[in-house]
Specification:
Elements lengths: L8 E4 L5 E10 L3 H9 L3 H7 L4 E8 L9 E7 L5 E12 L3 E8 L5 E10 L2 E10 L7 H12 L2 H21 L1
Antiparallel strand pairs: 1-2, 2-8, 3-4, 4-5, 5-6, 6-7, 7-8
């Protein structure tokens, strides 16, 4: 059974982007198991991972023998009722350590999902980060100033944090 969740940390970073960090301790699951699970998802396993919340997963592009460059579509529902559907692209992958996925659509919901994996005596410490906001050179700061408050309210932050805690602790039973 997982430890009680730590509260999320939220901070503003470069260009007015917001970084939401959740840390989740998994017992009896190795970083390699978590990484392998996340990089070999299909729709059935995605839905099993977080039933009633994970609605759809499609592999749109998966380069042969390569994780970086893979493109997926996912759709999920958070506890606050918000539904998010987005295309994401894997932009960094270090087996058993780190996976970085970047939203590529819709353009107005710009975010990265960063999953860090660290071996601990009990199993794995997952550091799950959402970095919301745009890096556009001139308009990024303005974009972030206007759109982040619309899409990332306090209730959304808590819902995202709870979602991450639930889905990762579910891996203790799936793997």
């Amino acid at each position: 059974m997982a430890s009680p969740p730590e509260p999320p940390t939220v901070r503003q970073i470069d260009k007015g982007k917001i970084e939401l960090t959740s840390r989740i301790k998994l017992k009896g699951v190795s970083p390699d198991q978590v990484y392998q699970f996340m990089t070999s998802l299909d729709d059935e396993r995605y839905r099993q991972w977080h039933p009633e919340h994970h609605l759809q997963w499609k592999v749109l592009h998966r380069p042969k023998d390569e994780t970086v460059g893979s493109i997926y579509y996912f759709k999920e529902r958070f506890e606050d009722g918000e539904v998010l559907g987005a295309k994401i692209k894997v932009v960094e992958a270090i087996p058993g350590e780190r996976l970085v996925q970047r939203s590529i659509s819709p353009w107005w919901k710009s975010f990265d999902i960063i999953t860090g994996l660290e071996s601990i005596p009990e199993g794995t410490l997952v550091t799950h980060q959402i970095v919301a906001g745009s890096d556009l050179p001139l308009l990024g700061r303005l974009f972030n100033l206007i759109l982040i408050p619309l899409f990332l309210k306090e209730r959304h932050i808590q819902a995202i944090h709870n979602h991450a805690n639930e889905e990762f602790t579910n891996l203790e039973h799936l793997l």
